[in-house]
Each structure stands twice: as C-alpha cells, then as structure tokens.
Amino acid sequence: MSGYFPIYLEWLGVAVFALTGALTAARKGMDPLGFALLATVTGVGGGTLREVLLGRPATWIADPTAPAICIIVGFATFAIGRSYTPTRKGAFRMLMWADGLGLAIFAVSGAQTALLASAHPVTAIVLGALTATFGGIVRDVLAGEIPLVLRREIYVTAAALGAGVYVGLEQLGHEAALAALAGVAAGFTLRAMAIARDWSMPAYPPGA
Amino acid sequence: MSGYFPIYLEWLGVAVFALTGALTAARKGMDPLGFALLATVTGVGGGTLREVLLGRPATWIADPTAPAICIIVGFATFAIGRSYTPTRKGAFRMLMWADGLGLAIFAVSGAQTALLASAHPVTAIVLGALTATFGGIVRDVLAGEIPLVLRREIYVTAAALGAGVYVGLEQLGHEAALAALAGVAAGFTLRAMAIARDWSMPAYPPGA
Amino acid sequence: MSGYFPIYLEWLGVAVFALTGALTAARKGMDPLGFALLATVTGVGGGTLREVLLGRPATWIADPTAPAICIIVGFATFAIGRSYTPTRKGAFRMLMWADGLGLAIFAVSGAQTALLASAHPVTAIVLGALTATFGGIVRDVLAGEIPLVLRREIYVTAAALGAGVYVGLEQLGHEAALAALAGVAAGFTLRAMAIARDWSMPAYPPGA
What we know:
The structure is a homotrimer.
Chain A: H1 7-27, H2 32-53, H3 65-84, H4 88-116, H5 121-142, H6 156-171, H7 176-197
C-alpha cells in the first residue's frame, strides 16, 4: 500500500475489522459463508473505497492476501465461537474494541495513501476518515443495524483526529513511520476513552 | 467539472445537498462530526459515483473545495440550528426543497459530464439520474430511513426529466449553458410541483 | 464483457436480476420510474461493482444495452403486472427463482472477467461472489428489507460454488465455455435445492 506504513499494521487493521464483521455475523446467527462474507466486506471495504476514489483498482485484485485473511478470520470465528460461546454482550464489547483499533489504523493508512497519491492534505484527512468508517458502515447496514458511526459516541471524531495528527506531523517534516504510529495512537486513545468512559460530543438538541 | 456547466451551480448543488445531510443529522440529534459526515456524504456522493462509474478518480481528490463546502455547511448548520431551533417539521420541509434543487442541478451536471466523456445519450440520462439520486439515497440509508427516492412522489421522474431536457436540447444543437439551465428548471419545477401539490405517479396496486 | 462467456447469458442475467428489482418494486407499490430504477440498480449493480473494483469504467458507459434492458423490464413489469396481478406471495416466489438464476450467471461471469484481467484465482472467486450478490444486496437495502444474502439459506455458498467450479475447470485446462456452463449449472442447482427443499447451512447458535 505504501513504502512507509508498516504493512503488518495494515494486515492487523484488516484482521480486526474482519473480526468485527464475524462477530456481527455471530450476533445475527448466520451460517459460515455469511461469516466469511461479512468479515470480507468489513475488512476490505474501507481500503477498497479508498483505492476506487483514487481511480485505481482494488489492491486485492492483484494480491488476495487481504480477502484471504478475512475469509480465514470468518471461518475461524464461526468454528471457535461455537465451542467458546461468548455471550451476545461479550461479543458486542469485543466488537467495539476491535473496531476502534481498526478505525485508528485505517484512518492513518487511508490518509497516507492519499498523500502518496499527491492529494491535498484536507482531502487526505477526509479520505482517511472515509477509509476508516466505510467498512463498518457497510457491515452495519448489511446487518440491518444503525451504523456505529451515527451513534452519539465519539467515532468519526477519533478517525479524523488520527488522520489529522498523522497528516500534520508528516507535513511538519517528521518521519512518516513516527507520524503514522502517533496518528494510530491518538485515534485509538480517543476512541478507547469514548468507549470506556462513555464520552460523547455535545449533540443537537433531540426533539427540537 | 466541465467547460460549459456554470461551476457555481455545481457548488450550489453540493451546498444544498450538504444542507439536506445536515438537516437529517439534526433530526437524528447527532454530534458536530456526524453533521459534517452526513453533509459530506450527501453533498459529494452523487458526483463521486459519477466519476467512479466513468473510471476516473473522484474530483475532490485533486480539489478539496466540495468536501470543504460540505464540512462548513455541516458545522454551520449545527451551530446555527442550536440557537435557531427549527421544528422537526420545519427542518423536514427545508430538507425537501433543498433536496429538490440539488436533484435538478446534479441531474443535469451528471448528464453533461457523461456527454463530455463521450457516453451514449441514453447512458447520459441514466448517469444524470443516478448522480442526482445517489447522495440522497446514501444519506437516507445511513440515517436508517426509507430513501426519499422510493416514496411515491415524483422523484426519479424529475431527475430523469431534467437530464432528458438537457440531453435533448444539447443533441438538437442548442447552446450547452442554455440547455443546462432549461434542464435544471424543468427538473426543479416538476419536483417542486410534486412537493407543493402532493403529485404522484400512478402506483402499482398496493396489497396486490 | 469477454471473448468466451456467451454474451446472451450475460444479458439473461441482467434481465432476470432486473426482474427481481421490478418484482420488489411491485411488492412495495412503487410508481413506474421506481420500477425502472430498482430494476436498473439490481440488473447492472453487480457488473458495475466488478468493473469498478478492476479499476475500469462501468461497461454500460460505452454500451447502454444493459440499462436499456433493465428499464424495459421495469416498465413492462409495471404494465403487465397491473393487469396480471400476481399475489404478493407469487411475486416473491418468482423473485426467488429469477434471483437464483441471475446469481449463478453473474458468479461465473464475474469470475471470468477477473481471470481475463489477470486476477489471482482466489480473487476471481471472491469477485464472482461479489458480482453475483451485490445487485441483490442494493435492491434489498433500498427497499428497506434484510438482504436475502443474510438469511440463513444457502446463498453466497451457491455463488461461491458456481464461481469455484468455473475457476477450477478453467485452471485445469478445460474449455472456457464448458467451464462456464458447468459453473452456472452448479451454482443454480445448489441454490434451487436450497429454495425448493429449504436447505440451509449449520448456523451459529442463535441467542448465544
């Protein structure tokens, strides 16, 4: 995806988002192929949108590593889950944490890919936020749920912060790998605080 | 986007669709970033789909004006709305009119972009209708509502009429700017009549 | 779309998927343009996603045959349906069978297009399954229904089987047309059995 961003972090992002897809499939009582499909759509959705918006083929056309990871995660979650049987609430909590990590990773990798394609810094932040949120949006829409991104908790904010920290440090001349790790850390920390402490932004007065 | 279509009309279309996204966020009681996200997805969604279907990168990769407009509209709607506090019904009515104007503008600009890319006239009309309806569809799906486009009022019909008038006049040799304004006027007038007078097409017998 | 796959089969796939879109519009009591829109999105959605993921313009930009077929199917279904008046249940059953045939055809044509674009065999199977399921997913999401693909019946499995049989036979050196027909037959047979005999895969324990 790039010469700078640690590729194992990208695979980790794919794997954790795939896991969130599989956990959603578990909550819906789906069959093994349903697990694989939701895992794949969630895991590769964001990166695919990023490439398409940049006018390029999806990266997994040439290299099937990412969908292969997702399919394995999907089947493994089905197999392990049947014996391990987490509660629905436990599955949801795992989903939230994994989703937060994937969010932070993809926000930065999306922003970096955009910068490498000579996009404007503002565009890079927007693209980072889209890359980070799109897989989860598709996952939730397919499962017939209100997308996490629309709940009042800090979500897009965390993605935008992660992408913004990365783009800012990079533009100030810092090393790309350092800027990337700082961006991932910033995005995940904010999202983690939001999950753990139930933080939210001031919302528009409901019922107005 | 083109040498012919007045670019300020394109920005106006982006802004009014962004406003419909922000008004939807208001009705859902979302936070500021939620306003910005729904505004951006709605405002740039249609034009982005158009470029992607033509096999090109999204125009905002190189020029962030459109997402910048949307983000500003999103934040401004949140800020102003909190003091102004329109009723939910008032917000919905504003949404309908702004949506109708955006619909007419994007139908024509989508059709024109397709013609400039040497598409077949029939394709240009289809692409115009898709450009005009896609942003609103994504807005409504994300907000968990039935897309406006599926309600019985005249909606796709207005987009297709606007695109059709433009393509027809253009093919008959009329000046592009004139054809464009005629198309926007035709599409918006039909949609406005449908909103104001509650017009609808004959529908398939329900319950059949 | 290719030198091998019988193009009339591709048009048949487009037409039957368009029919499923129109039948869904009938069940929702939509107007004629709504029929045309749902028919078009369903009929060309999968093939369009396939081209976009391969980094190419949608094939119907240059050749409007596919959307033209869909629009005709949409209007014809509206016109015929009003006099013929199938029951809702009858419409749903027709939808299931037509959907199964389109699924098998698009799984193979998607996989073949990917192979022709030099994709990895695993990628070809994934792309075949996505091509086959995407149009129906968009149809169901737009209509506000839970996508067929997420119901417990064998669905993605049938698409993956069809694509897999085709890719396997092709890689083993069999003639492309034969491999394609074998893939379509395998995918449709499995899906048909699932519909007729109510087969399903073992699912994740609900309520776990």
